[in-house]
């Protein structure tokens, strides 16, 4: 490719709307242009990077036995109504109607579509396990689309779904994906960490986030200073530990959780991946002034879930709840769900987590009738749970915990029978018994990974692409395009490099050398070859490595070998 022909509209100024470095640099270096808030056109350089990341992802998915498919972006509302998500997904779901007035949405994720597909196509345990994935545009009407490609409303995601016959099979699939994700981000040349993620429910299903370390990241990671231990957790999920002896009990307002885009308790629950379902153990209730959700500690069994009252509140019947009777058999007390963890909606997009408040009562259901956090959740009753902080001992090995910021580029998640059950997707086991598929879902943000790579690899001159995902590997720059020897040598080098399979760009523009160097640094080509008269007099050209910042004079006939 010749720079004179390349659609790479660079900007001198830092665009005012861009807050983070990847957004600024991808705009300035001519990789992306905005079409609407959170919606971007990917210009040639960006598209090359995306295709490289996709190819790495594809190879690692295929290596684990993944099969690539392509599901529709437009999804019928019926499926979402069947799963119950049409009503709870909230305003992040792009909804639309066809000409007949039928409801559809643009896929933010594909659990419904794929579970319905498998429900119809797979009926025997012999056909399992199954790993299916796609690479596709996803749509989420984020309340605050920002940071360019980091949080778009249209973005590219790889999403894989695993179907297994049992929990042991799910573990195998999950571990395969854990390995695949580790390979993907290593191959992309990124510094990242898999962190234990908050999968919503207390004591809920397994999940890891893969976070690229960068100061601009929105995820706060606590990780062990002992590399061999390897413990790392999203701060929200950091293990709860009891306070040390003599230490003051933490206050009620232990932690604020950001829940961007959430205005109703349904949205908050969805955001926190809470649903009033058996495994999730969530109680929702509403008082006059506020909406409150309470989660029952994860070690307790839930027997049954009932709609509790007209406000749509949900009541969970605990396995260990019992009515306390005296010797005559009369009811004197009721042991209800003590040990509630409360979430209180304090602002439009903010909830407060109250730890171990107790909303007990001595009468059946009384504790759920009108629970009031100030009356029923006594602050002084808060005890024995708090979140680990940096500097404290690692819950795994006892070494000190360190803190870092990260960008969530991927997440893997054990869904178990969450979708297969509600959508009635079952297979027959060896004994001819119908069982729901045991599922997992696994996402990688492809466009977000590109932006995260820039967040992690740049300097004050521009982007420094890891070679593996660079749009081109080498740029050849003649210092003067009036000097025929330079021009011809550059042209010959360019041809030789391309012939050797090296992705090369020739800066054939009539601009000053300074302009060309500036653009090359801004775009972030890993290697630059500069052709100048001085070097040519000795049969040499200058070889510059952008990431090492090193310059060397290399004989012309060695250049292809040097780049390789
Ligand atoms: P976040 O917490 O940043 O909102 P998420 O947890 O909602 O992300 P997932 O549902 O786990 O995202 O989707 C899988 C992956 O898709 C994420 O790990 C991320 O890399 C990517 N992704 C999610 N939302 C966006 C977005 N708005 N723009 C770009 N990529 C995104
Ligand atoms: Mg999100
Ligand atoms: Mg997330
Ligand atoms: Mg996620």
Automatic annotation (TrEMBL):
Catalysed reaction equations from the record: tRNA(Pro) + L-proline + ATP = L-prolyl-tRNA(Pro) + AMP + diphosphate
PROSITE patterns attached to this UniProt entry: AA_TRNA_LIGASE_II
EC nos: 6.1.1.15
GO CC, one annotated term: cytosol
Subcellular localization(s) per the UniProt record: Cytoplasm
Keywords: Aminoacyl-tRNA synthetase, ATP-binding, Cytoplasm, Ligase, Nucleotide-binding, Protein biosynthesis
Main location as per UniProt: cytoplasm
CDD domains listed in its UniProt record: ProRS-INS, ProRS_anticodon_short, ProRS_core_prok
InterPro entries tied to this protein: aa-tRNA-synt_IIb, aa-tRNA-synth_II, aa-tRNA-synth_II/BPL/LPL, Anticodon-bd, Anticodon-bd_dom_sf, Pro-tRNA-ligase_IIa, Pro-tRNA-synth_IIa_bac-type, Pro-tRNA-Synthase_IIa_type1
Keyword Amino-acid biosynthesis annotated: no
Gene Ontology terms for molecular function: aminoacyl-tRNA deacylase activity; ATP binding; catalytic activity, acting on a protein; proline-tRNA ligase activity; transferase activity
Sequence ranges assigned to domain Aminoacyl-transfer RNA synthetases class-II family profile in this UniProt record: 33-466
One Gene Ontology term from the biological process aspect of the record: prolyl-tRNA aminoacylation
Functional note: Catalyzes the attachment of proline to tRNA(Pro) in a two-step reaction: proline is first activated by ATP to form Pro-AMP and then transferred to the acceptor end of tRNA(Pro). As ProRS can inadvertently accommodate and process non-cognate amino acids such as alanine and cysteine, to avoid such errors it has two additional distinct editing activities against alanine. One activity is designated as 'pretransfer' editing and involves the tRNA(Pro)-independent hydrolysis of activated Ala-AMP.
Alphabetical list of HAMAP family matching this protein: Pro_tRNA_synth_type1
Comment block on domains: Consists of three domains: the N-terminal catalytic domain, the editing domain and the C-terminal anticodon-binding domain.
Family of this protein: Belongs to the class-II aminoacyl-tRNA synthetase family. ProS type 1 subfamily.
Subunit annotation: Homodimer.
Official protein name in the record: Proline--tRNA ligase
Source organism per UniProt: Desulfotruncus arcticus DSM 17038
Lineage: Bacteria, Bacillati, Bacillota, Clostridia, Eubacteriales
């Amino acid at each position: 490719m010749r720079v004179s022909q390349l659609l790479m509209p660079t900007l001198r100024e830092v665009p005012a709307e861009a807050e983070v470095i990847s957004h600024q640099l991808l705009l300035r270096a001519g990789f992306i242009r905005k079409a609407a808030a959170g919606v971007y056109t990917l210009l040639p350089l960006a598209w090359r990077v995306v295709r490289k990341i996709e190819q790495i992802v594809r190879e690692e998915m295929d290596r684990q036995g993944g099969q690539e498919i392509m599901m529709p972006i437009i999804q019928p509302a019926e499926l979402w109504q069947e799963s119950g998500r049409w009503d709870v997904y909230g305003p992040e779901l792009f909804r639309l109607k066809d000409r007949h007035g039928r409801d559809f949405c643009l896929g933010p994720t594909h659990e419904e579509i794929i579970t319905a597909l498998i429900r119809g196509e797979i009926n025997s345990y012999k056909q399992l396990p199954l790993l299916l994935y796609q690479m596709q545009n996803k749509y989420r009407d984020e309340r605050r689309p920002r940071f360019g490609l980091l949080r778009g409303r249209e973005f590219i995601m790889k999403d894989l779904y695993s179907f297994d016959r049992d929990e042991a099979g799910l573990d195998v699939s999950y571990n395969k994906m854990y390995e695949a994700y580790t390979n993907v981000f290593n191959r992309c040349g990124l510094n990242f960490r898999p962190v234990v993620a908050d999968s919503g429910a207390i004591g809920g299903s397994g999940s890891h986030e893969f976070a690229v370390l960068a100061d601009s990241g929105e995820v706060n990671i606590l990780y062990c200073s002992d590399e061999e231990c390897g413990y790392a957790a999203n701060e929200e999920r950091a293990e709860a530990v009891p306070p040390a002896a003599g230490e003051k009990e933490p206050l009620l307002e232990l932690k604020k959780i950001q829940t961007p885009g959430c205005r109703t308790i349904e949205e908050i629950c969805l955001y926190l991946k809470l649903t009033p379902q058996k495994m999730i153990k969530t109680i929702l209730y509403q008082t006059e002034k506020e909406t409150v959700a309470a989660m029952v500690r994860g070690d307790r069994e839930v027997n049954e879930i009932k709609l509790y009252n007209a406000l749509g509140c949900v009541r969970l019947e605990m396995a260990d709840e019992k009515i306390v009777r005296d010797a005559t058999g009369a009811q004197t007390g009721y042991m209800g769900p003590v040990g509630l963890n409360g979430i209180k909606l304090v602002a439009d997009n903010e909830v407060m987590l109250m730890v171990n408040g107790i909303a007990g009562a001595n009468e059946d259901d009384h504790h759920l009738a009108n629970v009031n956090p100030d009356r029923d959740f006594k602050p002084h009753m808060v005890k024995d749970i708090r979140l680990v902080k940096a500097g404290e001992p690692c819950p795994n090995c006892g070494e000190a915990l360190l803190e870092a910021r990260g960008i969530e580029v991927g997440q893997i998640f054990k869904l178990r029978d969450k979708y297969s059950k509600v959508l009635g997707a079952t297979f027959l086991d060896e004994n001819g018994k119908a069982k729901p598929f045991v599922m997992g879902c696994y996402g990688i943000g492809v466009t977000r990974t590109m932006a995260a790579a820039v967040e992690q690899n740049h300097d004050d001159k521009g982007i420094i692409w890891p070679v593996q995902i660079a749009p081109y590997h080498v740029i050849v720059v003649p210092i003067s395009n009036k000097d025929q020897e330079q021009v011809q040598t550059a042209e010959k080098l360019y041809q030789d490099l391309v012939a050797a399979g090296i992705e090369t760009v020739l800066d054939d523009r009539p601009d000053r050398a300074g302009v060309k160097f500036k653009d090359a640094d801004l775009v972030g080509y890993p290697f630059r070859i500069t052709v100048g008269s001085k070097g040519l007099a000795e049969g040499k050209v200058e070889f510059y490595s952008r990431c090492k910042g090193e310059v060397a004079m290399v004989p012309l006939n060695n250049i292809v070998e040097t780049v390789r």
